[in-house]
Design a protein that fits this description.
alpha+beta; globular
């Protein structure tokens, strides 16, 4: 259900969900960080504002840029087609994807170099969300960051996943 929720939030179209589920499975198998922006949005509490560097550094078990593996719980509800996609991901070697047009299509890649090529092709279409980086002392205010982050090498120090808090029942 967790992988289905990630696919649900990342893909606007049903045909892309088995491919995104496959990317998640492939990255988990290869012990790569998932680096899914939807988990960062969930960790900060939602909203449509562009992601900032501070958002990517936020300590949360849901931040898949900082924590290896799946988030502790689903990040959204899922539809039946998305659940089927997560149960039966596509049999593909892809490890990267990027949004390529406003209809919700994605381009998939096996290598980081191919991924960078896909990003370069998508950028002129204006579909990539622009992250904001905090200004430096000489440049106050946020400034746009246009390139995606490279995949993180592992092993590296990671925040171990924490179990979700359980509130005691009050009868």
């Amino acid at each position: 259900v967790v992988i289905a929720s990630l696919s649900q939030r990342e893909a606007a179209r049903d045909e892309g969900r088995p491919l995104i589920a496959a990317v998640v499975e492939n990255r988990l198998r290869d012990k790569m960080a998932l680096q899914i922006d939807a988990t960062v949005v969930y960790a900060r509490g939602g909203g449509a504002a562009p992601l900032t560097d501070a958002d990517f550094k936020h300590e949360s078990p849901y931040n898949t840029y900082r924590v290896l593996g799946l988030p502790p719980t689903p990040i959204s509800t899922v539809t039946e087609p998305t659940l089927r996609a997560a149960l039966h991901p596509a049999n593909v070697p892809f490890k990267f994807y990027v949004l390529t047009d406003k209809s919700g299509k994605h381009a998939f890649a096996v290598t980081y170099a191919e991924h960078q090529t896909n990003i370069a092709a998508a950028r002129p279409r204006g579909v990539l969300p622009c992250r904001l980086e905090r200004g430096s002392p000489g440049r106050p205010g946020p400034r746009p960051v246009l390139d995606h982050r490279p995949p993180l090498p592992f092993p590296r120090p990671l925040t171990p996943p924490r179990p979700p808090r359980r509130r005691p029942r009050r009868w």
